[in-house]
Amino acid sequence: MSTIQRPSQQVPEGTSRVPSPGRPARPSRSRTGHVPWLYLAPALVVLLIMTIGPAIYIFYTSFRNASVLGGSGRFVGLQNYETALTDPATQQAFLWTLLFVAGAVALEMVLGLALALPLAQQTRANKVASALMLLPFAVTPAVGAMIFRQLVNPNYGWVTHYLQVLGFPANLDLLGNPVGAWAVLFALDLWQWTPFVALILMAGVQSLPAEPKEAAMVDGANKWQILRYITLPGLVPFLAIALVLRTIQAFKTFDSFKIVTNGGPGNSTEMINLAIHRIGLQSFNIGLACALGVLLLIVLLLLVPAIERVIGRRADPEEM
């Protein structure tokens, strides 16, 4: 029996295809194109109100001599930026900020790697230790700063007591001198954020393939050689992620400095965020405070891409 072939129906150009009976018609693109925007509209409105709007206001106010006490001020051009860049107090605040970010992030990267390597092994003790590392995340930075301030209290603080046991002077006021104050601030930041870096790097170590390590061990490589030539190159993407995230977060540090030292003694621990708070909400010079905020944003916009260019070249596993 020969089969009868039906000629295919060709739809002329410019005409729409009529849907066959029983098959629902597809909605046109013009009808569905605006639906995703309707879903995104609430989030976009919140983003506009909470971020874009204040950013535009800060940039606009940085060119005016506005004050909290009232009035929009007058246009002063780059005068606020000139003051921010030439004032010795703000220069010192920028310097302390850069030194703190560089020192704290470097120490946290080293300590985080030192914790991640042994904890990456899947043992019961390591799982318990990894869970304990999440405790600093359960404590808000403000509460952690208040706890550290009480720990170093010269009258009843635990740290002061044990320092006296070790031979230091009695009732040692760590926050009364710049060296002690910076030591407390670094210790607080290390306690708060080293587990964050360690968890990122621990996930990276666990994701590395085991075959290169096994082949290196068969060839007689020791642990240091495996770490240097296999583990660390494989961790470059995770190191880049941890470094960029911690750098951005370190530049935003405010509450721990405000609660523990409030910029003191004197202004020896005044970071740029504290300077912005002091100038804007204590001296009521909103224009200068906004100019400092814009300068801090420019520093981040220049620094973060530079870090990504230096480390990101090796962050792609296909290029290593």
From TrEMBL:
<feature type="region of interest" description="Disordered">
    <location>
        <begin position="1"/>
        <end position="31"/>
    </location>
</feature>
<feature type="transmembrane region" description="Helical">
    <location>
        <begin position="226"/>
        <end position="248"/>
    </location>
</feature>
<keyword id="KW-1133">Transmembrane helix</keyword>
<feature type="transmembrane region" description="Helical">
    <location>
        <begin position="37"/>
        <end position="60"/>
    </location>
</feature>
<feature type="transmembrane region" description="Helical">
    <location>
        <begin position="179"/>
        <end position="205"/>
    </location>
</feature>
<dbReference type="GO" id="GO:0005886">
    <property type="term" value="C:plasma membrane"/>
</dbReference>
<dbReference type="InterPro" id="IPR000515">
    <property type="entry name" value="MetI-like"/>
</dbReference>
<feature type="compositionally biased region" description="Low complexity">
    <location>
        <begin position="16"/>
        <end position="25"/>
    </location>
</feature>
<dbReference type="InterPro" id="IPR035906">
    <property type="entry name" value="MetI-like_sf"/>
</dbReference>
<feature type="transmembrane region" description="Helical">
    <location>
        <begin position="93"/>
        <end position="116"/>
    </location>
</feature>
<keyword id="KW-1003">Cell membrane</keyword>
<feature type="domain" description="ABC transmembrane type-1">
    <location>
        <begin position="94"/>
        <end position="307"/>
    </location>
</feature>
<dbReference type="GO" id="GO:0055085">
    <property type="term" value="P:transmembrane transport"/>
</dbReference>
<feature type="compositionally biased region" description="Polar residues">
    <location>
        <begin position="1"/>
        <end position="13"/>
    </location>
</feature>
<protein>
    <submittedName>
        <fullName>Binding-protein-dependent transport system inner membrane protein</fullName>
    </submittedName>
</protein>
<dbReference type="Pfam" id="PF00528">
    <property type="entry name" value="BPD_transp_1"/>
</dbReference>
<feature type="transmembrane region" description="Helical">
    <location>
        <begin position="128"/>
        <end position="148"/>
    </location>
</feature>
<keyword id="KW-0472">Membrane</keyword>
<keyword id="KW-0812">Transmembrane</keyword>
<feature type="transmembrane region" description="Helical">
    <location>
        <begin position="284"/>
        <end position="304"/>
    </location>
</feature>
<keyword id="KW-0813">Transport</keyword>
<comment type="similarity">
    <text>Belongs to the binding-protein-dependent transport system permease family.</text>
</comment>
